[in-house]
Hints:
86% helix
Amino acid sequence: MTPLLYAGAGIALFSLGLWGFLVQAALLRKLIAFNIMGSGVFHLLIAIAERGEQPPDPVPHALVLTGIVVAVSATALALAMGRQLGEEQEHE
Length: 92
């Protein structure tokens, strides 16, 4: 039952993020939507890791942990680049 809950939440988060990414025009909102999509993928990976009575598969958990680190780093880079782009547009 729990894997279905995680999978459903993952699909809902990914769909919501995709909708926001396609509809929003502001770069910051697109970045937030992209992070929401990533959270949906993380939920799906956790749902896939469940194997019933056996212990969960550690590989998807490791992928999620690595993905969180990469997502935080990529978000910081995108925010810094967006700030730089905004400052350059102000000076023109």
